[in-house]
Amino acid sequence: MLEISQLTKRYGQDDPVLTGLDLTVEGNSVVAIVGASGAGKSTMLRCINRLVEPTSGSIKLNGHELVGLKGAELRRARRRIGMVFQGFNLIDRLSVMENVLAGRLGYVSLFQAVTRRYPQADIERAFQLMERVDIAHYANKRADELSGGERQRVGVVRALMQEPEVLLADEPTASLDPRTSEQIMMLLQSLASELSLPVLINIHNVSQAKTYTERIVGLRHGKMIFDGRPADFTSDALDAIYGGIEAAQDEPPAPPAATRKHEAPHEPF
């Protein structure tokens, strides 16, 4: 269970990016986080996995407080939080298998990590997951030789290799074509059910949020103004979240991760 209570994040003297958020996610729920650019969606996920430090509030994962952790405790906590990025965050010169096994870096010794000598059980698990998402035949292929959808599947498997207790996906379809983005959303939906894993997905495409998730949380200016079932996400809710922007369902993708203000580097372990 993920429990967020009175979460607030402020950068310097600026207005808060997040203000007093309360959210509980349990079981194998798939939750969409929607809102215009700058609403605080990505910041919320980065507070959960502690890529940024919350200003105040509480974040608990299965009863364990995440706020304030440092050093080894923080590294251990991050092992339990899988993250899928819009920009994939793969090491292009490495093979698919090597990128997938990077999900085990928080569990192996420095020597094993440097020499890439992972336990056989990890390698077998990697093959199982890659077969599940139909990329096992690319195991020895360089990551930069894959399509966008294939690269995102590598990112999903890498996150699952952590054996996470929650999976966060930050605009995982924004860099993909419509058909591929639908496939990735279906994949995340099915994996949540198969692995009994709660999944939080930041997404700009409201239509996909209503189709592939069972709960929608709407943010505006860092505040939660909607939390309910897709069936209850009416045009009034859409207007409240996006300020009457009728084209919100087809809103263009957010800029690449590397160009966003306050974006933190990939630091899952």
UniProtKB/TrEMBL annotation:
Listed Pfam families: ABC_tran
Q: Name one GO cellular component term.
A: plasma membrane
Q: InterPro entries, alphabetically? A: AAA+_ATPase, ABC_transporter-like_ATP-bd, ABC_transporter-like_CS, ABC_transpr_PhnC, MetN_ABC_transporter-like, P-loop_NTPase
| SUPFAM superfamilies in alphabetical order | P-loop containing nucleoside triphosphate hydrolases
Span list, region Disordered: 247-269
Give yes or no: UniProt keyword Heme.
no
Key word Membrane present in the record? Answer: yes
GO molecular-function terms, A-Z: ABC-type phosphonate transporter activity; ATP binding; ATP hydrolysis activity
Q: Where is the composition biased (Basic and acidic residues)?
A: 260-269
The UniProt entry, under CDD domains, shows: ABC_PhnC_transporter
Alphabetized, the UniProt keywords read: ATP-binding, Cell membrane, Membrane, Nucleotide-binding, Translocase, Transport
Question: Where's the ABC transporter domain?
Answer: 2-246
Chief place where the protein resides:
membrane
| Location in or out of the cell | Cell inner membrane
The portions of this protein that span the membrane are none
The membrane topology of this protein is: Peripheral membrane protein
Q: Which NCBIfam families match?
A: ABC_phnC
Return the protein name: Phosphonate ABC transporter ATP-binding protein
Q: Which organism is it from?
A: Halomonas eurihalina
Q: What is the lineage of its organism?
A: Bacteria, Pseudomonadati, Pseudomonadota, Gammaproteobacteria, Oceanospirillales
